[in-house]
Batch of 2 targets.
Target 1
Amino acid sequence: MTVFKTFFKILNKNKFIVILYTVILLVFGGFNMQTSERSLSFKPSKPNITIVNNDEDEGITKSFINYIKDNSDIPDIKLDNESLDDALFYEDTSYIVFIPKNYHTDFINGKNPFITIKKSNNYNAFYADMIVKRYLSIANSYVGSINNEDELIKLIDDTIDTDVKIEITSKIDSTNIDKASFYFNFESYSILACLIYVICLILSIFNNQNIHKRTIISSTNYKKNNRILLLSNLLYAFILWLFYLIASIVLLGNIIFTTYGVVFSINSLLFTICATSIAFFIGSIVTNKNAISGIVNVVALGSSFLCGAFVPTEYLPDSVISIAHILPTYYYVNTNDRIKDIEVFNMDNLKPIIINMIIIIIFIIVFIIFTNLMSKIKRKIG
Amino acid sequence: MFIHNFKYTFKTLLKNKALIFWSFAFPIILGTLFNMAFSNISNTEKLDVIDIAIVNNEEFKINTMYVDTFKSLSDKDNNDQLFNTKYVSIKKAKKLLEDDKIDGYMVIKDNKPNLVFNKNGINQTILKYVVEEIQSNKIIINNLTNIEIENQINNGNYNIDYNEISKNVINKINSDVNIIDKSNKNTDFMMIEFYTLIAMTCLYGGMISMTAINQNLANISNRGKRIEVAPTKKSTIILSSLCSSYLIQLMGLLLLFIYTIFVLNVCYGNNLLLIILLSLVGSLTGLSLGLSVGVLTKKGEGTKIGILLAITMIGSFLSGMMGVTLKYIIDKNIPILNKINPASMITDGFYSLYYYSNLDRYYFNIVSLLIVSSILIILSVIKLRRNKYDSI
């Protein structure tokens, strides 16, 4: 009980750090949740296109602008050069169309006026390019043959308006599950940081030479001592996990009460236990209090970056992913990513998830053994 | 005395392990992580070849326009290859879609294309777009041929050369559109991550100058008490301490530059002198920040470190370290916040060197940094000059 009480006294003194990492999780988790629309029918993706029109808003120019507006989103950007360039760089817009003066009269008179564009380097820009070129290409095909502007515009509109039938087979709404998967992936960072920081700090206090000596000569077995400490740690970890789970219900809503949510929660509980054992292990090696914040940053940031907690794994280079295999976070994130892709839960698609969980359990056992070993070695030296 | 104090401050600072970790090793570790995580993003943002299937029924086979278009868009030797197309039965197409092997498939029924997807997305939209374009082209051919025939009949020409007409129409469809592309070549926005890293390192340098100044303050360290009673000019001592901390700061920054340029291949633009100038000025801001926190707060060393870390981290956060878009959002909506944030000024300085061809924005940032540094240094000097300790 003494050990237990001391544990929570120290925790209370260091609650600031726990609050900090929790706020980070909620801010980033919540940041990503803003757009939420259910879509079971087909919705075409729309790139962001900005139009700078130096011509009058008439005739073919007007029709061209309306066409772009229908097929893209127009972001709210100031139209001066610097704002436009910034927006393009930070991908607020993917494509900027500059329509020159007198465009519509020059066009109808067969002067072949040029449109200037600026684009970024991603697939949205590629797609925007398709959209813009399609209109211009159709207009180009007709312009020599038809001289009346209104007739031309009508013909272009009719040509664009083709009806292609589209069917969507999936019956699940994946957007909410994607968000949940992002939240739980990010949670791994907060869990690791909160647990390692607090637990290492507490252990370093318990491992203080004088206190340590006092513990060794007491009648309590070192294993029992470690066990009580581990239990207090686990309790703290459990409270943290529960808190994040409640936060996820607030942020994500009902999805937590579905099978998806249950698997997400079990996975995060396992990872929390694993993080506790890691923290316990690091705490048994590190005795210097000043080194803890450095270690927390390196371990938590490192594993989160490498294993795809911040940046989705499909964006990571293969070499990084193969390194990530030696870290438990990888298996945690991998499970979350797999859950997201499941349409129907059955043994076939649950199998890799169960394997991932078993690997995490093995990590837990290995870290507990290492911790006991370290403790034993230190005890002999002490 | 200047050289003496300079030398010993230099030695004591270099022996401070925590200080060296945070200002030398931590930025390099963080840079390595950034590089591992972000190096592939710019590549994956480009469009991959899209896996699709086409139901190979009789209706498709006789529709030459579809056959030809998809053949050329799926040609592996073509640089603009867009699709990887499998020609299969309807059963097989359904299976492929179910197993997520393809993004969607097309089946032509009653002379109309039908598309089947299992989710929304950019790849699906592009397939839809290509099919619509083929449909549009069919309409254009139809319309133009009719117009052309009508024109010829109106002109009294009843001997119509259909081959000639269809050749002209196809040429019109395939003619290039009049577009001038003025895009900037430097568009890798992940570079911002590395610029914020440099900014963070510059400001972390404040930790070094603060440690140095703490050694000279009587209320913080014993050495400070000893120095305070020594018959030496205080300005010489403080100036030499700051000079040596500035030197260490620049060493750390140089190390980070060498590492990011040669190992991580970060691009800082082509103007080396301006990069050095920005680094020197940025470090000076870090130094003055550390100095002012050290001098202006009367609390213990731990609190001072806390304050400095908080300023640096919040500054780096706002300048886009944890998500490049944040800098843009702030620039767009609350520009004043980034105009007073030194981390943003440094980041923005590098960004303008990388992205912009004119230097106005760069010099604006340099001048802002100099103003911030001057204010902080002047405040610290005023405070230091007034420092008096009660006799005990």
Target 2
Amino acid sequence: MSQSFDEISAQLRKRHRQSARLKWMSLGALLLALAFLVVFFADMLGKGLPAFQQAQVQVEVDYSEQASQLPLAAVDEEVRDLVSRGWLRTLPMQMRDNPELLGTTRTEWVLADGQVDQYLKGHASRLRDDAKARVDRLVEEGRAELKFNTTFFSRGDSKMPELAGIMSAAMGTVMTMLVTLAVAFPIGVMTAVYLEEFAPDNRFTQMIEININNLAAIPSILFGLLGLAIFIQFFGMPRSSPLVGGMTLALMTLPIIIISTRTALRSVPDSIRHAAFGVGCSRWQVVRDHVLPLAMPGIMTGSIIGLAQAMGETAPLIIVGMVAFIPDVSATFTNAATVLPAQIFTWSGEPDRAFVEKTAGGILVLLSVLIFLNATAVVLRKKFERRW
Amino acid sequence: MNMQTAPRASHPAGKPEVGQPHTRNESACHDLSIRVRDLNLWYGESQALKGLDIDIFQKNVTALIGPSGCGKSTFLRCLNRMNDLIPGVRIRGLVEMDGRDVNAAKMDEVALRRRVGMVFQKPNPFPKSIYENVAYAPRMHDMVSRKPEQDDLVEKALRDAGLWEEVKDKLQQPGTSLSGGQQQRLCIARAIAVQPDVILMDEPTSALDPISTATIEDLMDKLKSQFTIITVTHNMQQAARVADYTAFFHLGEIIEYNDTKTMFSNPATRKAEDYITGRYG
């Protein structure tokens, strides 16, 4: 006896309710994740965007003989405490480098003190009331305002927030990444080529493969300990240097590059290999002339993602001493340097309120670089995607 | 290597000499190209080829026919050692070309593959330009040193493959932009560009439409004046049309090897007859 539509529908009702419930739950999960993302970005932008602006005041700078000895004398007493002391300290140097300044008096926009900056941005400030009144007057006269913060991008770290910038950290990141890429890319790609194209499939290579996959899951701080033990303790390389940091991160990036390269090599169809073998290519020629060029987009994508991951890594670099106060751009690969995430970490520990926005600003810069790198990887993958 | 130059009489009933066709094609020339004796091949534990004996004659088309899984493609790949690429393959027996055992340790498989070219089931041009597809291998083998020389060789190979007129104005376009039949002729041009002695074709038309198939068959007929062609085919009419000799494979053995005319009109064995008349396969 068959059932009528109504009877079957009645039985189905419960099932339909269940699937609707699941659908709403998964949608809810997605919305929650999106909400986290929005809150995170709003918070970062809200805190970080002010870091790209900095208060400046227009003052008369008197490049006198006296000022080259005692920089404080260069500006009028009325605004002396509103001007960045760090900037004042650089005056003698400026005068030495530009002798024609001597004896002149110029009206210039100069960096304001960090407290003035915080006051203008509406944050809590340690300025005394009379100083606040003077700042207000300067603002009314158009002699104090927030301007684009070139210092943030052109200078290294400083204990004075108005002089602190990400330049030294950014250069440190670039140098460290160069080392990482130079070490991890060739070794990773050659390892993958050997395992995928040359090695026989036996117990030994299977063990290597399992271990490589496990390496990718090892907590990054252990790579830091490894770097400390091998590169610094054993080989005696200089600590805190981009060389050691880069090599440590290369250890961490290697498995990612190996795995993505193997995937890329495997996606090249065997028909191409057979065609190449068929015309008398040696194994190496098959790989070099045919398989590697076709796998290159995939290899590049994997390497960029690995590099982006290494770029955001802090823990192993703490161990090898790259979290340090580095006011100047490191000149060589063996000098002490710091990297962007380490700089952010350092700033986040500073007690001064002004460093909160520096921290957020640094995060924004790092995030933009990472998003740019990942977008490049996606574009590469889309552009060279090939159907066989 | 002239083992048999005189045509031999047909042996409809009796067992012929080892590896010789039961009958000889009277019009063809009969210089030996490849001699195979007691060739056995195992994939792991399972034996795919069982004691094959066959003589392949120069400048003829030899067709290998038989039901799926009978070992004809496996045998074809033995001739240029493409089976080396498959893990777990063991080979025992003699495959002799030009007086040399191709499976010997001294034999360089790259040298072998230069003399024994291959065309595959699915057209597989390199994802490079049409010109590069043909020019790559001769350049790699240092057969050409200057650009004009290379241009000439590419043109000759494409002309021999009957593709020149169709592609001469678009040599820099990717080889994969051609139609299936054109791609397969490009693969043939790529194979003949290194001037091999033998061209192996593994079901070269099975992925093609009937018109492209006819073009390739005509081409095989033309090319046999320069090359020894060994082709695997599932299509019996094709074997009848293009081949001078036909070998019938069954379960890893060569059941019958005969000149094509005799094979299709008066096969010597019952199994071959059953297969050809479509009783199984």
